[in-house]
Each structure stands twice: as C-alpha cells, then as structure tokens.
Amino acid sequence: MIRLLVTGGLGFIGSHFIEYMLGKYPSIHFVNLDAATYAGNPDNAIAFKDHPHYRWVRGDITNPADIAKAFTEEIDAVIHFAAESHVDRSIATPDIFARTNVLGTLNLLEASKHHGVKKFVHVSTDEVYGSLGDTGYFTEETPLAPNSPYAASKAGSDLIARSYYQTYDFPVLITRCSNNYGPRQFPEKLIPTAISRALQDQPIPIYGDGQNIRDWLHVEDHCRAIDLVLRKGNPGEVYNVGGHNELSNLSIATQILNALGKPQTLLEYVPDRLGHDVRYAIDPAKISSELGWRPEIGLHEGLRSTITWYVESQEWLRRIQSGAYHQGLD
C-alpha cells in the first residue's frame, strides 16, 4: 500500500491533485493535512471526502503536534502545497507568511525526515525568481530575487527544503509553477475574481494599466506535472512548470467579460500593487525533456471551461461569500 501525505488538500491545487490521483491510482491512500483557514474549503473535497482511501487531518503546519497527527500511519511521500499564497495579504501581514511558509515547511521537513519519508515534493512558485523584462524566461538556474513578502517567504521555504537535501541527503524535490487557474480557485485571485464580479455586475479591479503579464497554467496540467515529479523526478532537483500561455491581466479580464457578454465598463483601474512584478514566463524545457511533461490544455479551452464551471457553480461562490463554507468546522 502506498500512502501519500498532502498538505493543503482543501485548497485549490491540493484538492485537484488528490482528486486527480485518486482517479488515476485508486489503490493509493491519502492523508490530507489542512488547517481549513480561509482558503481551505471543505466544499473542494466533496468529490472524494467519503472515499475509503482518504482521510482529512485538521492541523496547522506551524504546530509540530498537529503534524504528528498526520504521521500516525506510515507515510511514503509528502506533497507539500500548504502555504499562504495571496500577494496582497502578504503586503498587509507579512509575519503570517513567514511563519506559515518558512517555519511550517521546516516543521514538515523535520517530521518527514524523522519518519523516513521516501520522497518530499515541495510545491513552489515562479514568483521566487522576481520579475522579467520584455524578453527571456525563468529557468531552474535563474537566481532567486523575490519582490513581495509572499515570494520571499516561498523562496525561504525553497532554500530550507534544498538544505535538507544538501545536509541530510533527504529526498527533496522542488517544483516552481506559473500562475494556476481552473475550477475551485478561491475568489481572491484574478480569474475567479473577474468571473465572480462580472456575474454580479460588479466592478473588476485592474492594477495599474493592466499590462502585467503572467504565464497561465491550467491546474490539471500542474497536477500531471507533480505526479511525474513524484514518480520519476530526481531528488535534489528543481523542476519549472509553465503553460507557455503569456497574457496580460487586462487581456484575461477582457476575455472573461466577452465570454460572459458583459460590458468593458466593468473594468475599474486601481492604484498599482506595491512591488508589482512586470512579467513572469517559465521555460519548462527540463521537465519536458527529462520527464516527458507538456501542457495539454490551451488557454482558450481552459479559460472557457473554467468560466463555464463558475457559471454553473454559483452556489459554491455564494457559500464562500456568505461564510457558510466554514460553518460547523469550529
């Protein structure tokens, strides 16, 4: 029996990963360690919450005692998604990001080493590399140059993870992805914010002139990449995962309005975010050549299906907006 510990499995990417893996490998058992903070949504686990190979442990990675509750059974591998991830929140409360993303990762690594985990996949972000100009791409050799407290806290967690491989020969692998999108993304990120506000005929805030460019990656393509890194990746290595879908924030919001038949007058330009990175773009050549991964979902197709999901899942949105998604947890 293979047993995987997933942290943050009630979140956007973590819940998609568990659902994907249970569908592909029905014999694998999952332990989901998630504190169910504001972005940890039990509704995201509806598809698998009653699966006989799934168990949710409510716990915070900043608390070693909570982590210990997830290791009551032998764990073969850890896939570490849990993190504070919203840049705006990191600007307002950077201490929370340092505590969760750096100290929490350290606690999890220490517990995993103690329990003899065979692989530890640390899921990170391209934001640790900083900002690109008009040309060029991030590679695994690009120096880390984070520009927000969020990105800095993730860079710190990456370095802690790397140190466990270098110092203890602990089998750590690091992935760095571009901007994910897809169903069930918490409505604070650009795409779900634009969709949800457009559906309610509310203004969609656009930072600055809206020309900041991101490389968009569908969450299902990301899950396939993590699966490959888990099974075939080499410990000590970093794998960049990018969608080859560069588009400005303004273009994304405009496409969403067009798809929903909403007027461009809903766009509301607001003062730019502090330290706002201009452009992200990933070169995924390494994961493509070494592990055979390539994105399968184009941005046009993926964005269309994502919009359709939110249109058909407005009760999911309403439960978040009303707070009902967390009722009964405390």
For the report, how would you describe the main beta sheet? 7 strands, parallel
**CATH class membership of the domain at 3-180 and 217-244 and 279-297:** Alpha Beta
Classify the secondary structure makeup into a structural class: alpha/beta
Shape assignment? globular
| Adjacency order of strands in the biggest sheet | 3-2-1-4-5-6-10
The N- and C-terminal alpha carbons lie at a distance of 33 Å
**In percent terms, what proportion of residues is strand?**
15-25%
Helix content: 40-55%
Overall pLDDT metric: 96
Which architecture of the domain at 3-180 and 217-244 and 279-297 per CATH?
A: 3-Layer(aba) Sandwich
What's the CATH topology name of the domain at 3-180 and 217-244 and 279-297?
Rossmann fold
Task: Assign the CATH superfamily of the domain at 3-180 and 217-244 and 279-297.
Answer: NAD(P)-binding Rossmann-like Domain
